[in-house]
Amino acid sequence: MKSVWAFDIGASNGRLILNSFDGEKMYTKEIYRFTNLAVSVTNNYYWDVLNIFTQMKTAIRTSVQQGHKVESMGIDTWGVDFGLLASNGELLANPYSYRNPKNKMGMERALQNITSESLFQKTGVETAPINTLFQLFTMKTEHPHLLEMADQLLLMPNLLAYFFCGEKNNEFTISTTTQLLDPQSTDWDSSILDFLQIDRKILAPIAQPITIAGETLPVINDELQIDPIKVINVPGHDTACALAALPLKDHHSIFMSCGTWVIIGIPVEKPVTEEQAMTWGFTNEGTMEGTYRLQKNMMGMWLLQQCRIVWEREGIATDYEEENRLFEQAQPFYSYINPDDERFFNPLNMVEAIQDYCRDTNQKIPETRGQIIRCILESLAFHYFLVIKRLETLTGIKLKRIHMAGGATRNEHLCQLIANATTLDVLAGPVESSSIGNAIGQWIALGEMKNLQEAREVVERSFPIQHYQPTDSAGWETAYQQFLKVIE
Ligand code: LRH
């Protein structure tokens, strides 16, 4: 049996998963998990990328101590963020987090000279302040010294891969999150770079997914006491990895990647750039196969994660079991929020932000933790229903089932609420889908699996899928109409 290391680094925690394949089935083992939170300092939000790298090295040591020997490693992360290197290859500064508040201002300024419509036509990507494009625009004015010194820009998974193997490139799927990529040529869009007045040569070239980036550097091998291994360009974007691991059956299947963010969409050959898609905030990002996914990026478990931080601060930390119990005790359909409302993007106190929203929209104010949890989960479920209906309108396809991936599939209440709200079957799992997709990229690159279709068959044989059917239809339609009224 052969094994690979799949690093799946999210915007709240990172994991090293050992993925083993015996020719029939895949097996996963979580080796190491660490917290990864943006650091707020001098009015900016940064990623502590050297800590991420240190944690990755500790993860490798832990695996080696357990006697594991692997063929290769691959790294996937959240989208849009990047690091800058000086001409001697050194990291110039800590990368900014996409939650840096300055980006919004930067976006507003940029949009005085370029329209959302033209950007959407060129890239297929939704205009959002988090995008690399607007982060660069903001950097030009707010932190110009950095761009003046920069020689290379590497997106987060490729920056980390560079630390391990010394090769500089930007993998296709993560590059599609930047709003700087031209899907026609699959290369950086010159007109957008001209607009930004960014020298094209700082953007490291695009690498296709499922290619070998390089080999671990001697200094890494010595430090970690490992034999050199291949570093593979798996899909660098966690959502592309998650989609790869989902055994979608046909074009009536929706994929849903559920973590800090929730991403709902369907695979498409080419970006869908009609006006309605733009108005509804859809976006087109790349897949492992070099095609696209038409999708909407939305708030997910971020809302609950941030409430947990508030409760912890107040000395009333909740665990998963307790949250379930509190949810069950709370009255259904009490109050709703629009999960994508700006005020939830990075508030100092998420609980108060939710209460303020309910007050401002003349609803009952959720006071207890149970009421807050219900308000979040029910609002998420209704929001996803709205987006699925819009996907159907856009594509003319009757969507029949939802394949859910990611950590939030562990939340049984959320899965059931989604089945009830959408009246669709929900197939939840595999949970660690991003790391499985990451490993699939490696197995295909290593020639151990033929293609994605074969890989998905292996997934079906290897991991349990939880099935949720809609139940309890009473009151859902009225509640959905109520939700719509609130968010309009
Ligand atoms: C989710 C995600 C999402 C967005 C966001 C910044 O982890 O990748 O697709 O790109 O991070």
From TrEMBL:
| Broadest EC class assigned to this enzyme | transferase
Q: What is its EC number?
A: 2.7.1.5
Q: Where is the Carbohydrate kinase FGGY C-terminal domain?
A: 256-445
Q: Name the source's superkingdom.
A: Bacteria
Q: Which UniProt keywords apply?
A: ATP-binding, Disulfide bond, Kinase, Nucleotide-binding, Rhamnose metabolism, Transferase
Protein's GO biological process: glycerol metabolic process; rhamnose catabolic process
* Residue ranges constituting the Carbohydrate kinase FGGY N-terminal domain according to the UniProt record: 6-243
Q: Which GO terms describe its molecular function?
A: ATP binding; glycerol kinase activity; rhamnulokinase activity
Tell me which GO cellular component terms the UniProt record holds. Answer: cytosol
Q: Does the keyword Disulfide bond apply?
A: yes
List, alphabetically, the Gene3D superfamilies matched: 3.30.420.40
InterPro entries for this protein: ATPase_NBD, FGGY_C, FGGY_N, Rhamnulokinase
Pfam families according to UniProt:
FGGY_C, FGGY_N
Similarity comment: Belongs to the FGGY kinase family.
Question: Any idea what this protein is called?
Answer: Rhamnulokinase
